[in-house]
Amino acid sequence: ACMAQSIMLNLAGQLIMLQRDRSGPQVRDKETPTVNKKLLPFCPPIVLAQCVENVWTTCRSNKKKRHLLEALWLSCGEAGMKVWLPLFPRDHRKPHSFLSRRIMLPFHINIYPLAVLFEDALVLGATNETVLYDGLQGSSEPLEALFPYCTVERTSQIYLHHILRQLLVRNLGEQSCASLPYFPHVLELMVHVVLEEEATSREPIPDPLLPTVAKFITEFPLFLQTIVHCARKTEYALWNYLFAAVGNPKDLFEECLMAQDLDTAASYLIILQNMEVPAVSRQHATLLFNTALEQGKWDLCRHMIRFLKAIGSGEMESPPPTPSTQ
Questions:
Q1: This prediction's pTM
Q2: What is the number of other CB atoms lying within 10 angstroms of the CB of residue 39?
Q3: Which residue has the higher pLDDT, 291 or 31?
Q4: Does the pLDDT of residue 178 top 70, yes or no?
């Protein structure tokens, strides 16, 4: 392409970029014959990445997903994958130079990448599983029965939670992927991974990321569902650390009622049952029961009646040491 801004070469696993040198005067005479036109010189080559096996990019454009379509995706073997992500200036600020407008982010996946679905934010690839032959034991067993073989399966994997996490570390939170159908699951995965790492760390973390992640996901309408789904899939011992960053579960329960999201409020009752005294659980369950009665949600009313009966009136006025199976 004559107007290309740069040329990229993969030489023995080194991804090299050659940029056009536009520092000098670039005035051309349109009447000059094409053969006599002087081509723009190139700047010294720059090594973008090493151990590169495959490179993916696309010429398609989508203003709503510019970060995904204008990125460069790299497969670097044992080092996992990398993405050379474009950064767009905010608030009409002065644009940066070409290199500073992009950032290289590494991330790991559990499959061997074969293709990238750019707009869907998916990596298509293959996984293999080693299987032993189920042969008869004995000296007459053929030699090939003693060796394992691999079964290969095509599959896909999402990666956005790795990318968003690294962007938040650099205060570069991005919302252009919020229209993806599985974006709530991406947010839940990100919260879960950060929570597991920080809450189980043996050493104190000077600058924890979970409060930043919590502030980021509050900008999305499914914030309340994301938190309760993550909590119910996490060990009870980590709940205090989680809700210290995202907010008191009683306040989140009340937000669900104000938003008329009664099903999510019912999920928060399980959290309250294990973190608060039974009197608090009865109070919030009764409030949800009355709201469900007013809206005619009879199935939820039945669940609340069973929940209130399960709590009972003779229980100890202290939270249980371990989460119940209710």
A1: 0.76
A2: 7
A3: 291
A4: yes
